[in-house]
Amino acid sequence: MSGPREQVARGDLAFLDEGTLASFIRERRWFGAKSTEVVGAHVLAAVPLGSSPALCASLVEMRLEVGTHHVYQVLVAVRDAGDDARPGDAIAEGDGWRAYEALDDPDVVVEMLRMMRGGATVAAGEARVEFRALPGLPQEIAPPKELTRVASGDQSNSLVVLDGELVVKAYRRLEAGPNPEVEMLKFLEAHGFRNIPALAGWYAYSGPPLDATLGLAYHFIADAEGGWGLALQDLETGGDFFQRHAEYLGEVCGQMHCVLASDEQDPDFAPEPTSTETLALLAATLDDQVGQLFEQIQAREDLAQAVAPVAGRGEEIRERLRELSKVEAIGRKIRAHGDLHLGQVLWTGSDWVVLDFEGEPTRPLPERRRKRSPLRDAAGMLRSLSYAAAVADTRGIAGAGAWEAASRAAFREGYLHATAATGLLPAGRAAMDKLLAFFELEKAMYELRYELGHRPDWVPVAVRSMERLLDRAWEAAP
Amino acid sequence: MTSTRPVPRRVRRQWFERDPLWHKSATFYEVSVRSFYDSNADGIGDFPGLTEKLEYLEWLGIDCIWLLPFYKSPLRDGGYDISDFYEVHPDYGTVEDFVAFVEAAHSRGIRVIADLVVNHTSSEHPWFREARSSPDSPRRDWYVWSDTDQRYRDARIIFIDTEASNWTWDPVAGAYYWHRFFSHQPDLNYDNPEVQEAILDVMRFWLDVGLDGFRLDAVPYLYEREGTNCENLVETHGYLKRLRTEVDRAYQDRILLAEANQWPADVVDYYGEGDGDECHMCFNFPLMPRMFMALRRQDARPVLEILDSTPDIPEICQWGLFLRNHDELTLEMVTDEERDYMWSEYAKDPMMKLNLGIRRRLAPLLDNGHDEMRLMTAILFSLPGSPVWYYGDELGMGDNVYLGDREGVRTPMQWTGDRNGGFSRADFARLAIPPLMDPVYGFQAVNVEAQLRNPGSMLRWIQRFIALRKQHPVFGRGTYEPLRPANPRIFAHIRRLEEDIVLCVHNLAQSAQAVELDLSEFEGMVPVELLGGAHFPPIGTLPYLLTPGGRGFLWFRLQRPQ
Ligand SMILES: Nc1ncnc2c1ncn2[C@@H]1O[C@H](COP(=O)(O)OP(=O)(O)O)[C@@H](O)[C@H]1O
What we know:
Oligomer: heterodimer
CATH superfamily of the domain at 480-559 in chain B: Golgi alpha-mannosidase II
Strand content of chain A: 15-25%
Radius of gyration of chain B: 24 Å
Strand order of the largest sheet of chain B: 1-2-5-9-10-11-12-16
Largest interface: A-B, 31 and 37 residues
CATH architecture of the domain at 480-559 in chain B: Sandwich
Number of domains of chain A: 2
Number of helices of chain B: 16
Shape of chain A: globular
Structural class of chain A: alpha+beta
Low-confidence stretches of chain A: none
Bound molecules: adenosine-5'-diphosphate
């Protein structure tokens, strides 16, 4: 007799009705096309990984409107319906069995870590899943006493923590090519950068329809506090945490860039000169986006009041972008974090740790791996400090302006100190200020667009933040 | 079996989602390495230079680069005279530079195909040198020899401006050798199984390295048979089937794109039989001159008629659509009368003619008319097929008719208004081909840097347009349904892919026109203009009235009422 358990253990998911699968995925937080119509779901590949519980890694195609699709990783496990353990969200249930998403199942996570430990490669026809260990992985993988979910900041991944020691992160939406996160963490670790969680292992898929990193494991930073929360706390309580630690944060970010720029031999990381077009191409793209953004703003009658302070200022932004993109020296391009902000740093009590090296998840993978001016990261952090201040501002908290100016200045100081004399940054203060201002404007547009699309409640913050940026002459930065 | 040569280094990673139909929704960009960007200041463009400029092509939205021949060559025919299939011409770098380029392109989501000349070699190729050296040479039979120049007399001469015969006497060999193109390009003898294998080896070598396919140069002429015109022979098709079988057997998602400058009914044979067992793509040569004709006559009929006479092609196949390329605008596949018309309209100066064509770029052909360039681009992008864009035309670059042969349309890419147009840091005198410097088309007036800053420039427009086309798979994969309104100045048609329906209306006239379209099939649907998103009145039972401006066009998505 062969039921779903045996089938899953063989890598056969035919028993899952495609409609059921489609609605299961559509309701996940990590499903990235919520506003789009789903035409159907289809299992593209399923590689069996174990039998207790029956487990397979699958790639599922979500067919969207005509001719487009997304590919998602779903870990499918099946247990007997009578099994005491009922972990994870159910995908489907039948006569005596229950199929569920398996990342919440401690047995499954342990099995996957053990496969990393053993360097397993599992093949099913043309498809293959490889597990690999890195030095951070414990020799013995003991079943955890506790398995907790961590909310993914980007909402595009799933994270679980084992006993407050190890994090396993699974990427959901898959794109062809290696995810930058494993690549970046490996490189940083190998080149001696300590302010990151130690990498423990990863697993990846190759075969039809694409080669992709599926996930990774790294150390959990216990008892640490997130930078964003600390900033808000500072603002709300009139605290001086950032006054004391923003400069060091800048130094850590600067050191990270120095390390990322330190290997001329590795073509994936070797710094490159910035070509004459680099900034002009970005400026042209942003110029078009300003148009779209302000059309979008105009169309949002529900938010008319919230957007009023910037509604008429599109031309001004375009003008400023044009002005700022006329820089003679740009410095060098390097692999960078790509999505650096306060939500991506933790304070351990004595040090900063930088997290999440996969870049902005809304951008296509090739773009996330692109080499860029490191100042784009620095601008991201500056913007984030301003964003926190804008939150305080919209809540009527006094002193946000002074806090913003002081923490920005401190961060900047630390960053410039760490990167001085590396040749990474353009020579001359004027060129650097211009570039920073340019990237901040880019970020501010991204924020406003993001809030309009995802968090209308936050639109006033993005607007306030954009307004303050525009009102500040860039020469006077920070 | 893979290539018998050791492969230098393979592209390491797989950057693409597998998709055997990728070519159906791709935008191609044809580039001459020689003329794109010079990274080492020797006056000649090279692979490291092209690699540096990938960010530009990625921004532009290019899916696949088509490289003109980059192999070792005496360069007497722009590299179409290959003297070693396994070497990169030293002017452009090394095989290692080439691999690095392909790898960099892939990591930006851009595929790369390259020209492969299968019909002939350079007379300097060691194969030919051996062949001519002695009748007993093992390579003798790799080429086509004859004691007389009277065989295959029904084969036309293609390069009529330079060649008097397809036979040339070789005093070393003491025999005539056959060549369909220049006399320094002897044709390979495909009746010889060793030649068939040798070319397969070449193909495997570059596919092993990581190339995504080939543009097969001059495919109709591989075999010769007495009493025929020696074009499109069944043996030639047989060999292409063999190439294809090998590609399908050993590789994934690689394509063959045929250059077969033939009438529609003959071109489609190069897709092969059944589901398509020869080339994945063929250029649509007959279409292109008729687009120019339609524009000049302000009359859609030449385009409609050629599309009507174009047979359907297998599902996995695709047309390569182009306005201009590195060759002359060829007028082989038009009637004599049409050719005279084209010459009189588009080549007023006899310098502009070459063989049976016109050696000019897009912008000068259209008198630098920006509306005309946009209209022609819109028509091209609206048709079933994948657009193949010629480098520099996105800027409206010009040509230099005073340069010999087709060099005039292969001048350096114009990056900036600075020295050498930003193409090279070499002394001007060292440049392989001088950049354009005339007041209208020269690099001071026309360059990437300036156009990037100008939201209304041709470059910025093309970039947005490529992005728009990419958002709608219907353009690559949908049906083509001509509408044939009474007003002949309007070229209008429907593209349809399942629920995705697009209406394209182009006005070939210089003045605004009114046109009534029979859209009764779509009654109740709302046309939404694609560029700006404006909603037009819903389609009713009466003919739908539109009034496009002179040389204007309107593209709509037909939306079901909410
Ligand atoms: N190693 C870790 N130690 C402690 N907390 C972590 C660690 N990794 C992630 N987190 C927490 O989980 C959140 C999301 O992690 P992140 O790597 O940013 O995932 P995502 O890319 O899905 O947002 C972080 O903001 C942080 O609060």
